[in-house]
């Protein structure tokens, strides 16, 4: 049996090349195809190829706004068979989106039937729905039969399709778009067409206008679902200047009084691209999981309009506070990413700012107007040529009649006798007898004069850049009349506002009954909260082999801070701690704290308080307690510790001096002012050690002296503390006689 390494007869089809080169070349071709033919819109008409093909096919089917609708299945078939050789579902999805008034600011397709809704429900099958073009779509297509744009062969070469549409208004920004290509993406929010036209007119009047000048007219995005934009103007300016950024948008809401001092919140507009049904489900889940502590209930009372009703848990909660808390927790506030990544007139992808996009649109409109003018000029010249021949015939009517009646070849004889062209002679021979009347001759002369005047006007326009830009402006003013703010479609829907500054945490605390408690944390990590104050810790009971580690007095409204040996702070609400009837619960189930990581200190947060924190390696700094708060299970990394871990986290209060002691028994005292105040980091060196590290520290006021507490609970004040005063980062001096044997300022 002979083994063939290559198929017989196929040897000439095998190409030997490195696999990496073959893959890179083919993948590059695929990536470019996705970028140019699928994902990114053209800056001139703002359309992707499939959208352009759908609109052009519908126009070829004569589905104009004044025509009857046709089945979407018919439209999809025409597009797929003639222009877009891809799946029918992708074509139908494109058609559906262009018909959804909650997805498109200016719908390009007028749909009849179920085209989906804001709840996220899908459209009906294409065999049930019908569609035709809208007036906005006709503005994009206006002039396409007048050589306004270039055409290219379709995928099978049997027909042609437009490379770009004439585009009567700035559709790219008016309707916006999103798309993901290979290695790049685009995300453009919708805008108000009248504002865009005003900006274009301003740019025509002043080509040197800045983005800030244009934003006098273009206030920002105008989403089809309305809502409120709370992005600062400076941020919007940077976004439109660079073409990259984001826009924070919120739901619109009103307060409705329900009697007896109660109220409810009614959501009337949801953020763009947020499904209302998913939003209701999200809010209900927040209530169920008790993450939205201020929200009592949510229900959907929507009919044709959006109406979501939110009930607060307590009438004492301010509506602004309730909404601000929900904006942080839910999709009632979203961020629309802006990435003006488009294809320019040469098909090159790139990110453009507002001015560059509008300039590209205006340049395209000028090209369209010039091409349409030249097309019209050719038609006028052709008609004038025929009229010249007809007028010659009227001047020599008797001779023309004689030639037609008696000559064997009247066409050739007419050309010879009156120096006519073939087209002129053909027109004379096709003239009816009734058109030989005197009145008809006067009409021809009038038509000739009008066309000659129009031709002269077009020629003058083609020679004048100023006249061309004036026509561009005239066309834009006409569009503004159709899509202006006085129309239902053109009226701005999205409002602008500043996000109010409210203290949602204070509102949460206001709902908690304020009671004194004592937090008990055992050595093995079991935590509980006893009501009132524990006067005698020896009466506390623990599991066998366990004992008291921390006893902290606090209140139910406090935040409990736990400082771990790995430099992290964890925050727990004291009202959420387990009761003291049993042994409590393991604190490591409430926070992500590994068994190998110890707990250095536990205390309740005091507003404005500061703490001195340090690692065993002898580095530390002053930490504002507010910087340690973080309700994440993973906590917040504040102190960068080495292999030895953290050492202390003691309150500073009004102390002006700090004393540190190392494992070597040496004490160093230095002013607190030598320490930096930081939100996080490693800190500065506190004391120098040849071996070992930092063991303990204490803070004190100079006039009160340095105090120590021994294992028996006796306190001793060292008034001669100045003997250990030195420069920070120095070695210090040995502790005095009588200093606690454990080399600590207080028992651990």
Characterize the structure shown.
The protein has about 750 residues and is α+β, with helices and mostly antiparallel strands. Among the domains are: about 35-165, Topoisomerase II, domain 5 (Alpha-Beta Complex); about 250-330, Gyrase A, domain 2 (2-Layer Sandwich); about 510-605, no CATH class; about 605-748, 6 Propeller (Neuraminidase). It is about 30% helix and about 20% strand. It has 18 helices and 35 strands. The strands form 11 sheets. The protein has a 4-stranded mixed β-sheet. It has a 4-stranded antiparallel β-sheet with strand order 10-11-13-12. β21 and β22 form a beta hairpin. α3 (about 70-80) crosses α4 (about 90-100) and α7 packs antiparallel against α17 (about 465-485). The longest helix is centred in the middle third of the chain and has 42 residues, at about 355-395. It is elongated and about 145 Å long. The mean pLDDT is about 90.
Summary keywords:
single chain, alpha+beta, Topoisomerase II, domain 5, Gyrase A, domain 2, 18 helices
